[in-house]
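Lab notebook: predicted structure, single chain.

Context: the supervisor wants predicted structures on file for every construct in the current expression panel, including those that have not yet been purified. This is the next one on the list. No modifications to the sequence; it matches the entry in the shared construct table.
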Amino acid sequence: MDPTSRTDRLVMGDFSRPDGARHPHHPRSYEITDPGEAGEVRAVRELGRRLAAAAGDDLFGCSCGDDDGTRHATPESNRLLDPLSSDGIPARHRARWAAAAPLGLREYAAALAAGAEDPAPPRGVPLSVAFGWLGAVRPQPRDAAWLLAERAPLRLLAGAATAELAWAVRESDRAGLEGAVRFFAGEEFTTRHPKRRRVPDTARDLLLRHARSHRPGDLAVLERRLLRAPEDRLRRS
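Prediction complete. Output recorded below exactly as produced.
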């Protein structure tokens, strides 16, 4: 069976802990598409229903959504679905995402996955690597790590100087250019002061060419927001 089929996909809602604690990068809704993980969720829900039926009352009220409309929590279902549980499904999703990060960024990714709100950025990693990381993000499946997958590369890129970003565009492969177009067309770049949006022609042309061929929906945004630099002064020895 296709692991992303409708039969196996579970859409999970917010999980509210009694103590109010939250993982800072956990989305309010996400999907479970792995058949094994979906089976685990259904098994603990079935256990909750049986326990509730045996108790003859509603002792097992649950704050997590249920695909068939029932809401019965057990310690096991809480452990499985709690974003802060070290061996729960959300932690597994984040761990898989962190393990797939580019080599120089895995420590940074692991810190975010573990719940660090603003870990120190890695040193000595070219911004082109972050562009490639962003370019590899796909909107599906939206698992418990998708919010991190979208935010993490942007965190690294948003604080960089425009000249450094422009140089990284030159060093980027196709995946990197995909991420670069997403970044330069997004809010993290376009909310800058106009003087910080002046991009040398070489980088600007690379971005527009890639958008024209692969992300036409971003082309008009780039043409409007990528201001021209007077000249391409940045040089590397």
